[in-house]
Amino acid sequence: MSTATPSISPVLAPVAGGPFDTLRARLAGHLITAGDAGYDEARQTLYATRRPLAVVRAANARDVAAAVTFARDRDLPLAVRSGGHSLAAYSVVDDAVVVDLSRMKRVRVDPQTRIARVQAGATSGDLAGPAHEHDLALSTGDTASVGMGGLTTGGGIGFMVRKHGLAIDSLLSAQVVTADGAIVTASETEHPDLFWAIRGGGGNVGIVTEFTYRLAPVGRVLAGMLLLPASRAVLRGYLDLAAAAPDDLTTIANLQFAPPAPFVPADRVGEPVLAIIVCWTGTVADGDRALAPLRALATPVADTIAEIPYPKIYAYTDHQAAPHGAAIRSMFADDLSDAALDAALAALRDATSPYSLIQFRALGGAMARVSPDATAFAHRERRFFLAIIAIWLDAAEDAAPHAAWTNALWQTVRPEGAGVYVNFLEREGPDRVRNAYPPVTYARLAEIKRRYDPGNLFRFNQNVPPRP
Ligand SMILES: Cc1cc2nc3c(=O)[nH]c(=O)nc-3n(C[C@H](O)[C@H](O)[C@H](O)COP(=O)(O)OP(=O)(O)OC[C@H]3O[C@@H](n4cnc5c(N)ncnc54)[C@H](O)[C@@H]3O)c2cc1C
Fold it and tell me: Which atom of ligand 1 lies nearest, measured to the CA of 86?
């Protein structure tokens, strides 16, 4: 395999060839540079295609450590990729060395202890199947293809967040490669500061190679989609009911156009709806009782809620794994005014794409019972999450009108926001990164960053620079 190919830019040529061969020889995994087979696949993520200098497709933590040391010693930009779903497209970067964990997908579940050891390149879906074999589950995110690496280091707001908390709330320990190339274990007792920082610090302090989680006893759930006609009364009713519901009920509600799904009557396709994905973890009888007020908000357009194996819930979001264009702004909120709901309803009518949506999630429950200073994810008391998501299928399409649509609604609702979720930030500047953390949390994160990554090697992320 050749490394120094004519397609590598002359500026970068000095580090190609010899040094790369040295690194390649040390790896159990693969090193891919421009011109190698697989380069085009390796440089693609869900939202972007870049031209990295090299992709180190790691096979184990030692490979990750070797790549970190290689990049640091040569002062090369370093990016980190697990599932490749970064909304900010930070995980593959032009002219960078990419540490790619996407082949590190091993999942081991011990049904006796309910402990799962999950390599960081595994996805939510990779974990959900093996866990379900033992009637166990972890609350991760809403989409099977999202990587555990990025999801967990940001927090992880999933289908059971109100019952079982964030993904990080089930994290017992992690194996982490730090900027000095060391492979360490982070837990409440070993490197506790690092453990605090990887739970919400968004990859600022190290590269996690393996997570150890305690799974929850969840086998079948009462779940599905409830489609209600979109109106302010329905939206308000949803927000009130979902936030006050028992912890067993977690919901994700998208204000969108009714999709051409088999369960949507043909004459209702394209109608503005609130599409509520429901996940109830208690008994079916209790669930039906808890869901009755939601179902009574309006005559449903469709209602697929039934008892299903937990992993089947991902069927409602599987389409999100295909590359597409997106323009996103998001925020947490404690309340949303009628004016904000009306603005969202009006925005949907004016959407520049039929696939765009405005997402509402009711939070609270177990997520809010963890102290805000326990982890770097600290916006635990926020009642709602809101995301304005313009989606278009052909990523090559001009993004400008869609971004303008997102931005117009965002400008209207953002005064009602209270912080933002680090994993739903695009490239929005340092003030928005600060907004992801209360000041005291940000200061602690910057101090831990100073100790573990003083040179800011891990900077292609929602960056918290080391405290000077
Ligand atoms: C369709 C879709 C649905 C989503 N739904 C949810 C949801 O329901 N709940 C939720 O919480 N989030 C959700 N997200 C956001 C998601 O959590 C983030 O985009 C997350 O960063 C993706 O992780 P990844 O490993 O796939 O991404 P990557 O692009 O591989 O990584 C993103 C960033 O995470 C960091 N990172 C990745 N791996 C590691 C690692 N091993 N160690 C340290 N840092 C690392 C790096 O900074 C990297 O730039 C969704 C995103 C998408 C695109």
Answer: 29
